[in-house]
Amino acid sequence: MSGRQKKYLDDLLADENRAPVEPAEETGRAGRPMRAPMPPVRSLAADAQTSAATAPQSPSSRRRPEGTTLLGRQSALARVASGEVKQVTQLQLDPARVRVWPGNARRYEALSEESCADLISSIVAEGGQKVPAIVRRVEGDADHDYEVIAGTRRHWTVQWLRANNYPNMRFLAEVYDLDDESAFRLSDLENRARKDVTDMERARNYAAALRTHYKNHLTRMAERLNLSKGWLSKMVKVASLPQDVVSAFAAEADIKLKPSYPLAQALSDDGRRGLIINEARRLSKEQAVRRKNMTTPISAPEVIKRLLNAGIAQNREDQRYVVRTDDGRPAITVISSNRQGVTLRLHAGSGMDNGAIADGVKEALVHLSASGRGLMR
Questions:
Q1: Is the pLDDT of residue 375 over 50?
Q2: Distance between CA 185 and CA 79 in Å, rounded?
Q3: For 18-22, 156-160, 198-202, 356-360, which range has the lowest pLDDT when averaged over its residues?
Q4: pLDDT band for position 272 (cuts 50, 70, 90)
Q5: Where residue 219 falls among pLDDT bands split at 50, 70, 90?
Q6: Do both 268 and 334 map to the same domain?
Q7: 251: left (phi over 0), alpha (psi -120 to 50) or beta
Q8: Are 82 and 168 in contact (CB under 8 A)?
Q9: Which of 22, 145, 213, 292 allows an S-S link to 181, with CB 3.0 to 4.6 Å?
Q10: What domain range includes position 351?
């Protein structure tokens, strides 16, 4: 984590109230013990006491009056009480009693033994989870006591280990009191540098948060997240890619922000949108055939190229579409067709009467409708 991100995280967590110290054992809603006794909750003050108790004693320190030790303890406790030093609640939880917050960018259902292999190996080698997740309490859910704000992969991995030869593995978490917007910012900060969170997952997460937490105020959201407004705007734009287009790629992870942004812009043109989606459906079928035959999929750059060219080529063809007289003279030419409407040129001197011109206009509109660019879309 960069120094800038570290400061942002410290400021974010400093703004929130920490949950009170937990008892050594959690009990269920019916009062029955749910969890094995956890290690004692530690604070900076407690660590200082422990260090003082276990460190090698010099002759001078052994002769230190007892009153000095008591004064040191009182000073440490006073720092905790004043808020200068804050106690952090750490719990050893049953992961089945912890749900995943839906505001997180990472798709829980997309996690697998393969994608979490490094974390599985690390937790097994270290004899348990060492880096705690961040959770908050939930109310009104009979099946869960907490939800994960940051640490989705850790939660999935502990669940997997409990089902695969490590039934006593516990989920280590720190408890914070966070509102939804603060939870989103904290989750975003953790996921921002994660390479295994796809651009599409992140883009959709930002688009949802823009509506839910920031009332579609992009500038406010960029300020709160300490992000560039232009970059954030592009992410939200890419999130608008329809599922037909997403399916044209071999994998969702192939959709990258920079090359996909022009495609998202092209889809905003009603005149090109239908043509691009039709090509995307063809590409999706081709990808399915390649997967079935276990051959190399169509690359992401090639997918984007074909989608963009589909709209451009058809646009040029439409602009060349001309209704002609019997002797070949141009009578009506399609100039453009977009969200504002259809533009036709009626050529002077074609020799057509009004009835023939009306039939020619109808012919041009039928052609546009067949290509997905008519007035009725």
A1: yes
A2: 28
A3: 18-22
A4: confident
A5: very high
A6: no
A7: beta
A8: no
A9: 213
A10: 321-370
Structural domain tally of the chain?
3
Q: How far are the Cα atoms of 132, 136, 158, 171 from residue 98, in angstroms, in the given order? A: 14, 10, 11, 9
**What is residue 310's predicted lDDT score, i.e. its pLDDT?**
82
Tell whether 287 and 349 lie within a shared domain.
Answer: no
Cβ contact 263:308 at 8 Å: yes
Same domain? For 121 and 79 the reply is yes
Report the distance separating Cα 187 and Cα 87, nearest Å. 21
Distance of CA 151 to the CA centre of its chain: 13
Q: Is residue 113 classed exposed, middle or buried when 0-12, 13-18 and 19+ CB atoms within 10 A define those classes?
A: exposed
CATH number of the domain enclosing 135: 3.90.1530.10
As a whole number of angstroms, the distance between CA 163 and CA 120 comes to 12
Q: What is the mean pLDDT of the chain?
A: 79
The token duo for 106 is 């990472």
Tell me the two tokens of residue 185: 């910012």
Q: How far is CA 13 from CA 21, 79, 171, in A?
A: 17, 18, 21
Say yes or no: 274 and 296 in one domain: yes
Claim: this prediction has a pTM higher than 0.70: no
Query: Would you say 65 and 119 are in contact if contact means Cβ atoms under 8 Å apart?
Result: no
Strand partners, 324: 330
Lowest mean pLDDT, pick from 54-63, 122-131, 234-243, 298-307 = 54-63
Output the six-digit token pair for 4: 């800038």
What is the DSSP pairing of strand 322-324 with strand 330-338? antiparallel
